[in-house]
Design brief:
Residues 6-256 form the ABC transporter domain. It is found in: Cell inner membrane. One of its GO terms (molecular function) is ATP binding. It is a peripheral membrane protein. There is one protein chain. It is built from 12 helices and 12 strands. It is an alpha/beta fold and 342 residues long. The chain has an 8-stranded mixed beta sheet, with helices on both faces. α4 (112-121) crosses α5 and α4 runs parallel beside α6. The longest helix has 18 residues, at 188-205. Bound molecules: adenosine-5'-triphosphate (ATP). Adenosine-5'-triphosphate binds next to β2 and α1. Adenosine-5'-triphosphate binds at residues 15, 29, 31, 49, 51-57, 214, 280.
């Protein structure tokens, strides 16, 4: 197979606010704006940003749980928007989701064994013996004893429930798992265990992850590449090490500066993250970060910066730190992402 496993091109999602009765224009929440990225087989792409920047909406768009206002999601080169019900079911086998809150995402009335074999039974009938063998295998894969297959989610710890959610995601042998704040609800020590489990599974099974988190220390631990989102847009996308060692966009720099840093050797950066996140209903003109940006110049107030390829496979949307010039101006965001991963 050639080409990326997942290709997202100029994805946009606007949620209308109200019915707009007798109004000419209905206000919209600009949740996701012109987002493009690729994910290679076996890769972990992290999406990071403050609350409300559109991370979960991207996840829902990837799974086609909501329809985009614009743009495309291609899985193995196939646009999922064009898939009919049966083909969509098959495509969804390849992409599974792990959610933040195992309490609400697991059916409280089913046993652990039933929960994890249910996705397979949606596609094929299993004998009692096969169901038991599959449940035991999946439980072992996520480090749980097969003995707990008769327990209900309420009889398990938070970490065990999240392992169960991962086992259920693994049941259909997906190529890609979308993990939306998958460790945020867990204690730090349990978080580390789950992150290590995901990385082990990736090594063993070659699974790719889109890993959504607001927590930079988690992202730094697990990511191969990181996309930083601000108010619905990707402002920087870079290899993980490069991003943390040398953030280019002032917003990335501010996010890293604001995060607790376990490594005392690391130099703390100086861009403070001040002010409130603006409303996605009435976002600021030009670069939407400009009202909070200490480096903003006049151009930032009037012109939306396009993503520009800079060194080390990185793209950045900033008039000051990565000014667009020459032929780069002619490329769309999707072209820039493609250039960056080549
Ligand atoms: N169904 C909806 N209708 C209207 N607005 C929505 C809807 N879903 C999300 N939004 C808005 O879209 C924006 C992006 O939300 P989203 O949940 O994608 O952000 P997020 O980065 O995942 O936030 P968090 O980390 O808090 O979950 C927010 O302003 C949110 O209020």
């Amino acid at each position: 197979m050639s080409g990326p496993l997942l290709k997202v091109e100029n994805l946009t999602k606007h949620y209308p606010l109200g019915a707009g009765f007798l109004k000419k224009t209905i206000p919209v929440v600009r949740a996701v704006e012109d987002v493009s990225f690729t994910v290679e087989p076996g890769e972990t792409l992290c999406i990071v940003g403050e609350s409300g920047c559109g991370k979960s909406t991207v996840a829902r768009l990837l799974m086609r749980l909501v329809d985009p206002t614009g743009g495309r999601v291609l899985v193995d080169g196939t646009d999922i928007a064009g898939l009919k019900k049966d083909a969509l079911r098959v495509s969804r086998r390849r992409m599974q989701m792990v959610f933040q809150d195992p309490f609400s995402s697991l059916n409280p009335r089913l046993t652990a064994g039933e929960i994890i074999t249910e996705p397979v039974e949606n596609f094929e009938r299993l004998s009692r013996k096969d169901r038991k063998a599959l449940a035991a295998d999946l439980l072992r894969k996520v480090g749980l004893s097969p003995e707990i297959m008769h327990r209900l989610p309420s009889e398990m710890s938070g970490g065990q429930r999240q392992r169960l959610g991962i086992a259920r995601a693994l049941a259909l042998e997906p190529s890609l798992i979308i993990a939306d704040e998958a460790v945020s609800a867990l204690d730090v020590s349990v978080q580390a265990q789950i992150l290590n489990l995901l990385m082990d599974l990736q090594q063993q099974m070659g699974i790719a992850f889109v890993f959504i988190s607001h927590d930079l220390s988690v992202v730094e631990h697990i990511g191969h590449r990181v996309a930083v989102m601000y108010l619905g847009r990707i402002v920087e996308l870079a290899p993980c090490d490069a991003l943390f060692a040398n953030p280019v966009h002032p917003y990335t720099e501010a996010l890293i500066a604001a995060a607790p840093i376990p490594d005392p050797e690391r130099v703390r950066l100086q861009v403070p993250l001040e002010g409130e996140i603006p409303s996605p209903v009435n976002p600021p003109s030009g670069c939407t970060f400009h009202p909070r940006c200490p480096l903003a110049v006049e151009r930032c107030r009037v012109e939306v910066p396009s993503l520009v390829s800079v060194a080390d496979g990185r793209v950045v949307a900033c008039h000051v730190r990565a000014p667009a010039c020459g032929t780069n101006d002619q490329l769309s965001a999707a072209d820039h992402i493609a250039v960056a991963v080549e």
